[in-house]
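Async update (no meeting this week)

Hi team, since we skipped the sync, here's where things stand on the single-chain job. The sequence we agreed to prioritize is pasted below, unchanged from the tracker. I ran it this morning and attached the output directly underneath so nobody has to dig for it. Comments welcome in thread, and please keep replies under the output.
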Amino acid sequence: MNQTIKRWSNGPFLTYLFLTIQTAVFLLAFLLPQLQLEFRGAMFGPLVVYNHEYWRFLTPIFIHYGLMHFAVNSVVLYFMGQQVEAIYGHTRFLFIYLLSGLAGNALSFAFNQMGVQSAGSSTSLFGLFGAFVILGIHFKNNLAIQAMVRQFALFVGMSLIFGFFDQSIDIFGHIGGFLGGVLLGNIFGIPKNHRVYSVHVRIISGMIFAFLIVFCLVYGFKKYGML
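Output:
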């Protein structure tokens, strides 16, 4: 029993937890459409502003539109999440995943056209990509990390390019998630390697992240005429 618990605690259990949550939400939305989970939890600016539904900055991370959207993001989370969680550790992974999603949804709230509805774990996934890019910058001599960074950078580049031509893709959510992941990767660092990360860079990254969130909130509320 103790060995089983230890194996789970050492494994990517948060990745499996996030997968379980978004799978459960997808199945509930499919089997019980009357619940309107997709609408109740997606990023939708008017309801954030006028109904004060601030949970919409996080709940879109677990909501997907259609089987393909869900399947692609789930596969990426399964493979990427395991690697990032193993390197950063469970607690850092938790904050990077959720706060990157928050940053992506904040940018979406601020810069998408009024009334646009968006959702998907891609905001958080782009945050994981951003955090991994930071690893590549700090560990230039690690061949394994460099190889993975190149693979992930290619994916990010292609996704951003497609986003400019596909109106159904929330490009601002992707950009916000990626920026959030880059900043959070600097803020948290990785276990037992704090000396690699400059204290000044970590502080500045934290200040920029806070400014990004506040700016997006102010700009978004002003866009809806509330400021």
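Quick observations from my side:
The chain is about 75% helix and 0% strand.
The mean pLDDT is 88.
Reply here if anything looks off.
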